[in-house]
Amino acid sequence: MIPMPDLESRAAPDDHQDLRVWLRLLTCCNLIESDVRSRLRNEFDTTLPRFDLMAQLQRAPAGMRMGELSRHMMVTNGNITGITDQLEKEGLVVRTKIETDRRSSLIQLTPLGRKSFAKMARAHETWIKNMFGALPESSRDALFKVLGELKLHVVADRHDKA
Amino acid sequence: MIPMPDLESRAAPDDHQDLRVWLRLLTCCNLIESDVRSRLRNEFDTTLPRFDLMAQLQRAPAGMRMGELSRHMMVTNGNITGITDQLEKEGLVVRTKIETDRRSSLIQLTPLGRKSFAKMARAHETWIKNMFGALPESSRDALFKVLGELKLHVVADRHDKA
DNA sequence: TATTGTTATACTCTATAACTATA
DNA sequence: TATAGTTATAGAGTATAACAATA
After folding, report:
1. Residues in chain B closer than 8 A to A27 (CB atoms)
2. How far apart are CA A140 and CA A146, in angstroms?
3. DSSP letter assigned to residue B99
4. Rounded Cα–Cα distance for residues A52 and B157 (Å)
């Protein structure tokens, strides 16, 4: 089988193991992400950030504020405003004024939004299962565990800098 | 320690393990990638695709054609033209006409490009080592191995569709 | 006819910064 | 003064499609 050329090919023979791990991680992630993005676009006419935002709201029936969404999605505030505007125009989410703090509002999925998200989430889970399902369960568990350690370390570094 | 909110928080308690693994993978990758991007911008006034292109050329002293670069970097042709134009204008790469096929040309790093890339690559390797170095070697090996399996499967799926 | 690379264009995603309203 | 959210803008990154030159 001919190895498919990809980003990982930028690793030189004498490169450090860490670099190889990183390039492989990046390649995997890009492959899966672009697959998910194109399916979301083709099958549901939506985008990954829109899907992410709805997924966050799905988990928070009481609603979330813009700032919370911004932190969870790790993007700046202005972007959340833009996505929320779109979704609100399409009737998928609503902004509700908060009485005790009139600067902010709660964003919630509408019934239509919940229905729409449920459909996408089912499909999304199938795509992901197809891609990860080939790994033995022990490998998936190992991956989850190691990525957990990695994330802790990277996040700690970010805190140090800030 | 308070868990930092991130993309992974979109996983619901009853979500399938595959979904959790994917969200964690995505979060790790995004964290590291955005760190690398901002360092490349701040310290070397460049971008990830420019760095990637130079890294590919570094490995191919005889040069590469646009189409090869396009396949390796997994982006469409037009983008390669744009990046190459920039790098050529800055004297980091050169296009050389191929005598036997006058439609295409070989792209190579110039001596300046090699020097510039070497400097960036050293810094880049340090960043990556700092992030991955905290993992025990056995974990890194495991990660490398599992991601290898995952990639094979995802790539195979892509071939099936095409 | 098919392929290589270029050009033109459009859209998504993101950050930054200035701003308004409220706390 | 500080915070929540909005607006405006700029740039990265990408894909698509029409095109020219060559095979």
Report:
1. 151
2. 10
3. S
4. 24
Q: Indicate if the alpha-carbon torsion angle B42, B44, B48, B49 is positive or negative.
A: positive
Determine how many CB atoms are found less than 10 A away from the CB of residue B13.
5
Sign, CA dihedral A146-B19-B26-A110, equals negative
Residues composing chain A? 162
Cα separation, B11 vs B15, in Å, equals 6
Closest chain A residue to B149, measured at CA: A135
Longest dimension (CA), chain A: 63
Under 8 Å between Cβ of A55 and B9 = no
How does pLDDT run across B88-135, given as a tens digit for each residue? 999 999 999 999 999 999 999 999 999 999 999 999 999 999 999 989
CB contact at 8 A, B25 and A151: no
Nearest to B29 by CA among A34, A98, A95, A50: A34
Question: DSSP string covering A116-156, please?
Answer: HHHHHHHHHHHHHHHHHTTS-HHHHHHHHHHHHHHHHHHHH
Nearest Cβ partner of B56 from A10, A21, A56?
A10
| C1’ C14 / CA B144, Å | 30
pLDDT over 70 (residue A4): no
